[in-house]
Amino acid sequence: MDKRLRWLNNLMCFEVAARHQSYSKAAEELFISQAAVSQQMRQLESNLHVKLFHREARKMRLTESGKVLLSACQKGFGEVINGLNQVQEAPLDGELKVSSTQAFCALWLVPHLFEFFKLHPGINVNVQGSNRIENLHDGNIDVAIRFNTSSTGLTDESLVIERLDENDVYPVCSGDYLSKNAINDAKSMKNARLFSLAYENKVDWESWFEFAGVEVTSNQLRKTEVTSSDLALSAVLAGHGIMLASDIMVGEYVRTGQLVIPLDIPHPVSWKSHLVYAKNNPKQKRIAVFCQWVKENLIRTQGPGPL
């Protein structure tokens, strides 16, 4: 056996550091100190007599030799993991931990889970609502349902990323609110109480008004920011204002008449949804069943046309 395989721990550390292009993020994933990561990388470079990284601002960029080694490590570790999964693959029944945004968990996932349990009573799904990008390598989350305004940048050799859908965003409010407020065009929306997500700078009211041809500044809008769409929805259902929302979140409320679209003007940016899970997760049978159920039921619960 090649004596260089004695450096296996260093190579595993290298794969994580190279994937993140960061010693600090590698330290977080490996539960060791940043100094320990740095030391292992120095040892590996010394043993190989090649430079693997060079610092560029706050990132550790790979050299050409580093890129070659990363590709080889990921292929090699992937084959080992595939073999381990074949001999240790978890059975279909058991626990599955799923993460998504607080709003999606509250508005779609949890209300529909009873249908999944009817079909698969042996799979127990635990749900974690979080607006953070959860780590899928530490075993705390098996499947993440993520929402982005762009699919570019969603690349990670260690993850499976399945595109779910693309959802247009429209203004919605209650019929009662619409009947009590004169909303005839986009300009008249400037006087409405608007609910928006805090820290969201792409699917926001300012860009909706710009797309609709109305000049506004943020100070001119009667805007209330919330940290999750389900909070905005509770206010909008009670007749307190208007929110921007996609079909995946509020389509059923629109189709049952609880919400209406005051103006048929979509937001210029749409939400892209993805299923994400680790390639080396041994719960592949459970993950496959759950992901297929999500894909089938998201399509079933969305209607034709705007929302």
From TrEMBL:
PROSITE patterns named in the record: HTH_LYSR
Alphabetical list of Pfam families matching this protein: HTH_1, LysR_substrate
Keyword check for Iron: no
GO-annotated molecular function: DNA binding; DNA-binding transcription factor activity
Keyword terms, alphabetized: DNA-binding, Transcription, Transcription regulation
InterPro entries in the cross-refs: LysR-type_TF_proteobact-type, LysR_HTH_N, LysR_subst-bd, WH-like_DNA-bd_sf, WH_DNA-bd_sf
Domain of life: Bacteria
Residues in HTH lysR-type domain copies: 1-63
Transmembrane segment boundaries: none
Coiled coil: none
Family: Belongs to the LysR transcriptional regulatory family.
Descriptive protein name: LysR family transcriptional regulator
